[in-house]
Amino acid sequence: MGNTPDILGMTGLLFFGCMSSSNFHEIKNALAIINENAGLLDDIAQFADGNRPINPEKMKTLSAKITKQVKRADDIIRNINRFSHSVEKPMERIDLGETVAFVARLTERLAAIRGVTVKTVPLASHIHITTSPFFLENLIWVCLDFAMGFTGHGKTVELITETNNVGGQIRLTRLEGLNREGAKMLASREKTALLEALEATLVTNPETGELIISLPKIFQQGVTRQK
Q1: Phi, psi of 56 (to 5 degrees)
Q2: Could you tell me which of 50, 62, 79, 189 has the fewest CB atoms within 10 Å of its CB?
Q3: The pTM is what?
Q4: Mean pLDDT score, 14-34
């Protein structure tokens, strides 16, 4: 597949831009709330200068709101930082369940915009595989983005991490609206390129309403393979 690197590059760039802009928007929202509450604290301080009584409970509430948003912004920045560094690592040993949970956090706002709840259900034990973190994150998002269009009345996508006979797998379940025609819509050059780069397979099962991504325990060739 001679044009695979070009497809992967463009797909990765779009994915990176989508995740970055969405999470930076969330930081902006957090800062707006901090700014609003800081303004209220300033108003209270001015009341105090005028010898008006201060309501301690209101001060505590405003302080708690600011602290909450600072933590929220810090968590988002940590996610973006981790996401950015994943581009630098062509191959790494990862915890599959933790990576799935990370992508769910990274895409939380995009799911919320569509009114969809994303739940992750990892195994009690860890599943470690050696793979390309960035391409895997991209593939999970491509499948999750698709799955969110077939949640039906439940408006929930459940991601279940499991072991299988080649390494590990991710099942995206509770796709009540998935049918055979819908399953065909998942086919794309971008998805195919990601699967090839990760040596992964993707199965759609309209009968059970799920997608299954299967990944090898050790990533052997990736995009460096020569033909």
Answers
A1: -60, -40
A2: 50
A3: 0.86
A4: 94
